[in-house]
Amino acid sequence: QVQLTESGGGSVQAGGSLKLSCTASGYIFGRCGMGWYRQAPGKEREFVSIIPVVGATKYPDSVKGRFTISLDNDKNILYLEMSSLKIEDTAVYYCAAGDFYSGGWGCVPDFVHWGQGTQVTVSS
After folding, report:
1. Which of 6, 55, 64, 106 is the most buried (most CB within 10 A)?
2. CA-based torsion, 26, 28, 34, 36: positive or negative
């Protein structure tokens, strides 16, 4: 049974910084793609950073230059560093990861493991 757990969320003033962590049980990050998503009230869930199976790390324009995703292979922890936070960054943040096909060869095209989310609230 795979379980992803986010931590590090909380309340912060605009312009501040926050670092989120995602730990995994029964799973090793890096075998397939991984990333962070967020969902604000009344809005669709959107990606904030993705490390794909192949290719460059991706960020939407809304967070580019302010957010950084990273993986600590030794600790098996996925991080999201956030700086210069804005009120519009307020959302529940989720980590996600892909996995191998049942046959064990290659990665499924979508993220199949998700955490429960951690709340990030940015105020003025």
Report:
1. 6
2. positive
